[in-house]
């Protein structure tokens, strides 16, 4: 137990040591541990997170902000650090004599009153505090202030920075409180038994739990991104903060109530932490309007500037790859690509000449050992610019990666050069009519016959089967294997093989998918990739990168849709989205938050995969996939509602060149590809220990 946790545990716990007097007693020992020293922002945020998890409103961020603004009053800064000056920061008119809705008001000694637009801020003593009982516990107060003890001039930029950090602090504290309730609900679900088993095994509980985890991880990544940008004085730091704050305001209360559903009646009574955490979450979110957003909402910032969403590449190599890819895409067409469109040989050849296909492979296999983050940056940009290279890109990860890891020297020589050149066309033979996302239940069989295998069965919903040269095929080679996944093997089967029949179907998206039937299809053992009955390992070895690439494809298209929508709105701000404060702008802000959350989840998952944090990478990639699918559907639908019927057209002169209606049709597939969202949430829940 570290000093922070030990102090909070000893000095602050519900219900007996969590009142105004406890706050006053806590302030001095917290200062002695350096909580109010002007240290790093990351350190301050870590402390705010700890107080949020304890439902404690000690104003650590207020002290950090005040110390940063009062550099010309060193004696006050020293008093803040020592805990002798117990300061709050309030946005408002310095001439006003009162402050409403003050957290820790009865424990505070001073208030720094900050004019939101900048100007003369003043430090004023608290003469007396009038408690305002209600949701907050301890109660807020109305403070009556004395005359100024110090005055400092604050320019508009510093005022905006201060307000932004105060809002970030509220978001951090609310998110941490929601995280704590979530963790308690997960622990409860593992031991609480109903109807003969732990409730963590119930589908509804697992779905709720996974949804909470996705929203929390996304929110925490948005907060971390805002902290990094503030610490580096990045020009987009206020936008990044509003993205994090908007997310917290939307999801922290939702997470809290969802956790209560799992905790049940035991979490409703005040002997449990949950009621106090509930109060903390809702009180902090309720306080956000008292600290006005310095540049307006996310939509206001984006509409009023020429900037887009902040870039989130996790490594310098990924950022460099993105710049190269953007330059390449600028040289080629960027119209909306039809979903059933074949790759453009000229564009594929140009990418191959740059050695971008298979760049993550080892040098011995024709690659250059690039990281997954670089591969995803390239994938994201080609999807964003709608470059017709999707099939060639897919072959790299779906076929190339397992051949690199499990293929023989002869197989590598046969397939890898063609994948590097972008010439190998394939389809993915996983899904079956009765198996769907449950690959362990597949029934297509391959029976050994001398040096050959004889394949029988049916695969369903197979994209590109009508044009593919090969099918990357999962089959059962041991029908009695226990567990079932132990009897699966992988084959690279030529689609021209005798006995293969395809029946094409037109999907809602416009893509052609097929039912593929195998009737005594004979293939050589040389078509098998990896050991017999070890196909599950072949699949799962590359599953994280495959899911990430699928999610990245969706994310790139969603980012393009968002930018197209933003460009349309900028051309007529009040007409398209409405004035500041309107529902249209609120929708636009929500879209921006969700798109950015997906980008951060993808970057995090890729970074974890590169660091060999396999379990975390798989969980995070599943979260990114679930959220990417939901964002794709919601964004397309909201765009149609904001832009009206014109966005439902697919003509080149339609808004976004037709990308909105196409994205909406494709969004259904987004919920299904790589395993349905319900299945993915179940996997996430099991990754958290629920079963």
UniProtKB/TrEMBL annotation:
Family: Belongs to the acyl-CoA dehydrogenase family.
Domain Acyl-CoA oxidase/dehydrogenase middle per the UniProt entry, residue ranges: 427-521
Keyword Flavoprotein in annotation: yes
Acyl-CoA dehydrogenase/oxidase N-terminal domain sequence ranges: 316-422
Protein known as: Acyl-CoA dehydrogenase
Pfam families per the UniProt record, alphabetical: Acyl-CoA_dh_1, Acyl-CoA_dh_M, Acyl-CoA_dh_N
Lineage start: Bacteria, Bacillati, Actinomycetota, Actinomycetes, Kitasatosporales
Cofactors that this protein relies on: FAD
UniProt keyword terms in alphabetical order: FAD, Flavoprotein, Oxidoreductase
PANTHER family: ACYL-COA DEHYDROGENASE (PTHR43292), ACYL-COA DEHYDROGENASE FADE29 (PTHR43292:SF3)
Every Acyl-CoA dehydrogenase/oxidase C-terminal domain range: 159-282, 533-688
Top-rank taxon, per record: Bacteria
């Amino acid at each position: 137990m570290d000093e922070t946790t030990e102090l909070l545990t000893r000095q602050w716990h519900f219900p007996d040591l969590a009142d105004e007097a406890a706050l006053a007693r806590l302030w001095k020992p917290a200062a002695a541990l350096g909580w109010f020293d002007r240290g790093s922002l990351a350190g301050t945020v870590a402390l705010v997170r700890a107080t949020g998890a304890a439902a404690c409103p000690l104003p650590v961020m207020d002290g950090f902000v005040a110390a940063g603004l009062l550099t010309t009053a060193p004696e006050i800064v020293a008093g803040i650090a020592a805990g002798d000056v117990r300061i709050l920061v309030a946005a408002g008119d310095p001439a006003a004599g009162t402050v409403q809705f003050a957290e820790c008001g009865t424990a505070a000694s001073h208030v720094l009153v900050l004019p939101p637009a900048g100007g003369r801020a003043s430090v004023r003593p608290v003469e007396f505090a009038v408690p305002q009982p209600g949701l907050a516990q301890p109660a807020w107060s109305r403070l009556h202030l004395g005359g100024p003890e110090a005055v400092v001039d604050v320019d508009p930029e510093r005022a905006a920075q201060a307000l932004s950090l105060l809002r970030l602090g509220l978001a951090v504290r609310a998110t941490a409180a929601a995280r704590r309730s979530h963790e308690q609900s997960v622990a409860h679900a593992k031991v609480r038994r109903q109807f003969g088993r732990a409730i963590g095994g119930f589908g509804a509980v697992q779905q709720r739990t996974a949804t909470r985890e996705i929203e929390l991880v996304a929110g925490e990544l948005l907060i971390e991104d805002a902290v990094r940008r503030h610490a580096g004085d990045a020009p987009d730091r206020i936008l990044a903060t509003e993205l994090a704050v908007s997310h917290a305001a939307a999801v922290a209360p939702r997470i809290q109530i969802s956790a209560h559903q799992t905790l049940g009646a035991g979490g409703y009574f005040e002997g449990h932490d949950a009621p106090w955490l509930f109060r903390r979450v809702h009180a902090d979110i309720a306080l956000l309007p008292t600290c006005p957003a310095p540049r307006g909402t996310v939509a206001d910032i984006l509409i009023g500037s020429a900037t887009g969403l902040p870039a989130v590449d996790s490594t310098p190599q990924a950022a460099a790859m993105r710049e190269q890819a953007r330059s390449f895409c600028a040289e080629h067409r960027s119209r909306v690509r039809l979903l059933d469109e074949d790759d453009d040989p000229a564009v594929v050849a140009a990418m191959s000449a740059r050695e971008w296909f298979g760049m993550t492979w080892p040098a011995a296999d024709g690659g250059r050992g690039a990281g997954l983050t670089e591969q995803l940056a390239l994938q994201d940009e080609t999807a964003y610019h709608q470059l017709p290279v999707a099939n060639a890109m897919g072959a790299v990860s779906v076929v190339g990666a397992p051949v690199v890891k499990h293929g023989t020297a002869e197989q590598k020589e046969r397939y890898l050069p063609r994948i590097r050149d972008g010439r190998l066309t394939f389809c993915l033979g996983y899904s079956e009519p009765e198996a769907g996302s449950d690959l362990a239940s597949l029934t297509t069989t391959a029976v050994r016959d001398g040096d050959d295998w004889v394949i029988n069965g049916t695969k369903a919903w197979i994209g590109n089967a009508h044009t593919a040269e090969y099918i990357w095929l999962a089959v059962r080679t041991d029908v009695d294997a226990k567990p079932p996944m132990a009897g699966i093997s992988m084959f690279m089967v030529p689609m021209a093989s005798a006995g293969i029949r395809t029946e094409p179907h037109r999907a809602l998206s416009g893509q052609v998918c097929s039912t593929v039937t195998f009737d005594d299809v004979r293939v050589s053992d040389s078509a098998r990739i990896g050991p017999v009955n070890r196909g599950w390992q072949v699949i799962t070895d590359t599953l994280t990168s495959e899911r990430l690439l699928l999610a990245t494809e969706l994310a790139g298209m969603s980012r393009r849709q968002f930018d197209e929508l933003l460009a349309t709105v900028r051309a007529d701000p009040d007409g398209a989205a409405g004035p500041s404060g309107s529902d249209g702008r609120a929708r636009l802000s929500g879209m921006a938050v969700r798109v950015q959350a997906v980008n951060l989840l993808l970057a995090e998952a890729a970074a974890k995969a590169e660091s060999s944090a396999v379990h975390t990478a798989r969980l995070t990639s599943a979260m990114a996939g679930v959220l990417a699918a939901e964002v794709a559907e919601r964004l397309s639908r909201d765009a149609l509602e904001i832009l009206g019927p014109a966005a439902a057209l697919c003509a080149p002169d339609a808004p976004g060149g037709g990308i909105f209606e196409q994205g909406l049709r494709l969004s259904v597939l987004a919920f299904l590809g790589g395993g349905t969202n319900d299945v993915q949430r179940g996997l996430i829940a099991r990754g958290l220990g629920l079963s």
